[in-house]
């Protein structure tokens, strides 16, 4: 009987813990112009198009996500 009570309390605890924790957070994919940190890295945008991490052509030449391949 004690084992059944233990299993029942464990199951209830897991259900409560999963509802409190909620679903895992997901990051949104980057858009063109968003900053990036690794030169020539690639990723996909929300539409599945490839973005490359390249320096801007104007200003301080910081790295941003861009279409068009390595620059």
UniProtKB/TrEMBL annotation:
Q: Which domain of life does the UniProt lineage start with? A: Bacteria
- The stretch of residues making up the signal peptide is 1-17
**Protein keywords:** Signal
Q: What is this protein called?
A: Secreted protein
The protein's organism comes out as: Mycobacterium bourgelatii
